[in-house]
Amino acid sequence: MKIIYHHPLPLNPEATSASGIRPIRMLEAFKALGYEVDVVAGYSPERKKLIKQIKQNIKNGVKYDFVYSESSTMPTVLTDKHHLPLNPFLDFGFFGFCKKQGIPIGLFYRDIYWLFDEYYKNLNFFKSRFAKLFYYYDLFFYKKTLTKLYLPSMKMGEYIPIVNRAVHSPLPPGHTQLQPNQLSKTPRSENTKLKLFYVGGLSNHYQMHILFEVLTRFPDIEFTLCTREQEWLSQKSEYPAQSPNIKVVHKSGEEMTNLLIESDIVSLFVKPQKYREFAAPVKLYEYLGHAKPIIASTGTLAGEFVKDNGIGWTIDYDAESLAKLLRQLITSPVMINKIAGNMRHVSEAHTWQARATQVANELKGS
Question: Other C-beta atoms within 10 Å of 186: how many?
Answer without folding.
Answer: 8
